[in-house]
Amino acid sequence: MANHQRQFVQYTGPPGAPPQHPPPPPPQSEQPTASSSRQPVVAVGDWTKSLVDLAKTAELKKHALTLQLQTAHILAAHASLEQKAKSIQDIKEQKNKLDSERQRLLTCLRQVNEDRDKADLLQATIEHECTDLRERITRIENGEYNQARREVDRLRAELKQPPLPSVQSTLDERSSQFLTEKRLNGEPGKRPRGRPKGSKTRPKVQPQDSN
Q1: Which stretches are tagged as biased composition: Polar residues (predicted)?
Q2: What is the pLDDT confidence band of residue 9, given thresholds at 50, 70 and 90?
Q3: Integer angstrom CA distances of residue 6 from 13, 47, 60, 132
């Protein structure tokens, strides 16, 4: 089998068109020579100082952030401390008021205790006097009173006269009379029921017709 070779025909455009020339080849870039690729890169300026300053700046930002955070904590603690100090001052003022009130109550309690002791002493004195009076009554009743009573009752019976009331009957009568007078006069501090004496009932005012 015969080998067929491809043939390329340059296209010159449509018939009657002016011939076109192929574009020129692109310029070849200069290849670096071996001597130029081997030269070291030289840094411009003091790059060591720049790196040190950059590291110090980063460290400064780090410490500044820590300082700012700790400052916020300190300010918050101071605000809480001031608030608690104010609370302590308020509590002290309240304690002073309570101490004054306690002192007043202690004074009142001491006065009450003194009055109570006086009342106890007065009660004991009166009870002792009552005991003496009861003993005196008993001695009188068992002494001349009984003797005189028997003679009076005997003589009144012989004269057909009713016997005299006993001492207990007389005491009961006096007690009943005292309670009756107290009920009729009314207890002090209470207003009697009903209208006051001499008051009159006011007549009701009838509304007048507007016509």
Answers
A1: 1-10
A2: very low
A3: 21, 62, 74, 166
